[in-house]
Amino acid sequence: MEKGMIMFVPAGTSIKIESSSWTENELQYYKLDLMVAELKEENSNQLHIQDTTEQHRFLNGIQTQASLSLIELNYSPWSSCLESMEQMLRQQINSDWLEQWEVQLRFQEWFRALLRQSNPETEAPDERSRIKSSIRYIGDHYDQTITVDELAADIGLTRASYTRQFKKITGKLPLDYVNTVRLERSKQLLQLTDDRIHEIAQNVGFSSEYYFGRRFKQYAGISPGLYRRHHRQEVRVFAPYLEDFVLALGVKPVLQCSHHSWGRQHYLGLDDVPEFDVSQQDAQFNLGNVPDFIMLDKGYDRWNLDRFEQVAPTFYVEHLGEDWRSILKSTADVLGKVNRVQDVIGAYEDKAMEAKGRLEQYMRGQTVAFLRISASDITLYGDQQGYVGPVIYQDLGLTPHSRVQQWTRHERRILIGLEQLGQLNADHLLITFDTGNSAKPGDERELLERDEWKRLPAVKSGNVYEVDFMSWMNYGVISHGKKIEDILRFMA
Question: How far is 149 from 160, CA to CA, in rounded Å?
Fold first, then answer.
């Protein structure tokens, strides 16, 4: 016998265990005696099932006394097999009927897996299948101690090969994946139970409440206690330039951000919500508007908003703006609104699909470009990234002008001069005006009086459309919905 081998021995067969010179290590094995279930005639309502497990330690090898054809079976991962054996061994001596029932359930689960894996019609699993088997094992045993060496050994791979294949399939290192499973389960327990934090930490496989709390905050962005509180009560949130996501989930922010040059996001309809000017470095919260929770995106350092960490717990959005679905999901997670996410995303995708179908009838390959115009600059937005491209070119299927693709490759936006502007002979131009650099009102519109502008084909044909600066220069499902509505109004 070798490590990991299982022999199925018919009743009445004798085996002999004797010394051998090839090893001095103790051989540990489990002997499981099985009795076939039977219905007793005198009491047909009783089903008798019995198995007994014994653990033996002998020196060296095992030999059969007679020459018999024994059946060799396989079980993977091996650590799962050992865990089942150990638990049956511990529980069988308990006289409590519930514990005895647990032994039977565990035995049936183990025996079913053994027979399924040993089916001769089942092909030997390849590396990918074995990794997937290991992933399932993690999902079933995340609350137990798990090491990469054991996981790799259980499916017959080296640690390096296992780690490489595991990351290829999951995108994560094995222990990072284990912790992700544990932390996702802890989120469920925080929402659904009143268990104490240290109890939840232990239940999902963390030995230390402190370590669990630190890993949870790294993963979720907030502490376990705050996460639970947000899922049980409404929260007063301040989320500068993230109000779109908050409002889409049905949460009204306690304040809305504004900027002295650009104003506020009127498209959100938060007319009754007080403004907070992020461009004022010394701005403070009024006594009646102090938030319970603050959300900040990657632009927080521009406005020095991290100074408010001392006011309330602060969550930092790590995703890029183009990945607005992930931002929406993480926002929903920390605000306790996860149940709303799919409805919000689904409504947007339905809207985009319907609009795309209508636009196909009217546009028929006509080209489009988007310009942001200020007093000093002309900015051309790309077709792959940024506030505009993913919506109008990808979601709505509009055709970008060739210069858009050529000049903005791998860039969100680029500055262009009047010479380049003259080459932008797109069929349709979408424009918005940036008042941020204007010395006086109207400076940003001086371009419209230049001959270079007037000679553009879209200008001559009347296919230039001015859009709202704040709704177009923003990420978020409400913002993107407004973009779709504008496009339909202009081009369909």
Answer: 10
Tokens of 183: 């932390």
3-state secondary structure of 460: helix
Residue 442 phi/psi, 5-degree rounding, is 100, -15
The backbone torsions φ and ψ at residue 223, rounded to the nearest 5 degrees and listed phi first, read: -75, 160
- Rounded CA-CA distance 389/196 in Å is 47
**Pairs from 180-187 (Cβ < 8 Å, separation ≥ 24):** 180/219, 181/138, 181/139, 181/142, 182/142, 182/143, 182/206, 183/215, 183/216, 183/219, 183/220, 185/142, 186/212, 186/216, 186/224, 187/220, 187/227, 187/333
| Token pair of 10 as six digits | 């018919």
Q: Which two tokens stand for residue 300?
A: 């927080």
Q: Is 185 helix (H, G, I), strand (E, B) or coil?
A: helix
pLDDT at 48 over 50: no
Query: For every residue of 52-71, which 3-state class applies, written as one string?
Result: EEEEEEEECCEEECCCCCCE
Peptide bond into 77 cis (omega under 30): yes
∠ at Cα 45 (42, 50), nearest 5°? 90
Cβ atoms of 346 and 370 closer than 8 Å: no
SS3 370: strand
pTM for the whole structure: 0.71
Q: pLDDT tens digits, residue range 306-360?
A: 888 888 999 999 888 899 999 999 999 999 999 999 999 999 999 999 999 999 9
The β-bridge relationship of strands 237-238 and 293-296 is parallel
The answer to whether the CB of 270 falls within 8 A of the CB of 252 is yes
CA dihedral defined by 225, 231, 237, 243, rounded to 10 degrees? Answer: 130
**pLDDT tens digits for range 363-407:** 988 999 999 999 999 999 999 999 999 999 999 999 999 999 999
Name the burial class of residue 63, with classes exposed (0-12), middle (13-18) and buried (19+) by CB atoms within 10 angstroms of its CB.
exposed
Strand 378-381 to 367-373 pairing:
antiparallel
- CA 172, 173, 174 angle in degrees (round to 5)? 110
Check pLDDT > 60 for residue 24: no
